[in-house]
């Protein structure tokens, strides 16, 4: 009889222990889930308007479990904001996502279908309404790709041409450039051997003064022709 009572007590304590443990474990799991829910997304290294845009595009993260956030997916999503680059995502446990990014440099203005765009150093066309700009930028006319202009700009800088003196560019259908300088000098580049043509112009300017309203025709290989503008 005594043995039967002891068994009943053991069963009672065992069931009670399991019941209490289950409640405790459920509370523990629930608390852990709450601890690792994302409470904040912080953005660094960009100005306020861009930070607000990034926060708007990552608002879905709030309340998500930080362990399940796929950083590659997030970077791909933010890459669609074509005015930023060098995106880096960090998880700051237990509940913060840190986003670092760089605003791409704006290097020119252009127009398509009566809409204004910026050309970004990251190789993107950026709708002007998306981002503010206070820099004085040249205007590009013609149908071109950002990489066409970035290549030209790189060549001009390499040969120490002052880009600030160029007010506008024209890209022709045969993929060659005309450069319009502030002193009303126009340079007509070829569609091939651009580097050699710029070098020829550079050597000429070291020995000669060029008057305003002059067209410098470099379209023929190894030849520089001057005309009145």
Written description of the protein model:
The chain is of the alpha/beta class and 229 residues long. The protein has 2 domains: 40-103, Ubiquitin-like (UB roll); 106-228, Rossmann fold (3-Layer(aba) Sandwich), CATH 3.40.50.11690. It is 35% helix and 28% strand. The protein has a 9-stranded mixed β-sheet with strand order 6-5-4-7-8-9-10-11-12, with no helix packed on it. The longest helix is centred in the first third of the chain and has 34 residues, at 2-35.
Summarize it.
The chain contains 5 helices and 12 strands. It has helices at about 1-35, 50-55, 70-80, 145-160, 195-205, and strands at about 40-45, 85-90, 95-105, 105-110, 115-120, 125, 140, 165-170, 175-180, 185-190, 215, 225-229. The strands form 2 sheets. It has a 9-stranded mixed sheet, with no helix packed on it. It has a 3-stranded mixed sheet with strand order 1-3-2, covered by helices on one side.
């Amino acid at each position: 009889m005594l043995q039967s009572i002891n068994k009943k007590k053991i069963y009672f304590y065992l069931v009670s222990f399991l019941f209490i443990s289950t409640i405790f474990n459920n509370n523990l799991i629930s608390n852990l889930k709450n601890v690792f829910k994302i409470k904040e997304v912080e953005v660094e290294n960009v100005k306020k308007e861009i930070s607000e845009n990034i926060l708007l595009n990552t608002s879905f993260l709030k309340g998500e479990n930080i362990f399940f956030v796929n950083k590659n997916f997030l970077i791909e999503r933010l890459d669609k904001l074509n005015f930023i680059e060098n995106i880096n995502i960090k998880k700051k446990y237990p509940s913060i996502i840190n986003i670092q990014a760089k605003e791409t440099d704006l290097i020119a203005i252009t127009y398509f279908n009566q809409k204004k765009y910026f050309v970004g150093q990251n190789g993107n066309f950026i709708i002007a309404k998306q981002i503010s700009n206070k820099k004085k930028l040249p205007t590009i006319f013609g149908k071109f790709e950002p990489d066409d202009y970035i290549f030209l700009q790189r060549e001009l800088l390499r040969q120490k041409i002052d880009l600030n003196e160029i007010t506008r560019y024209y890209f022709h259908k045969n993929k060659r450039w005309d450069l319009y300088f502030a002193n009303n000098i126009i340079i007509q580049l070829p569609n091939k051997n651009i580097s050699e043509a710029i070098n020829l112009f550079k050597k000429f300017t070291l020995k000669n003064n060029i008057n305003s309203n002059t067209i410098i025709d470099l379209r023929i290989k190894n030849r520089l022709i001057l005309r009145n503008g």
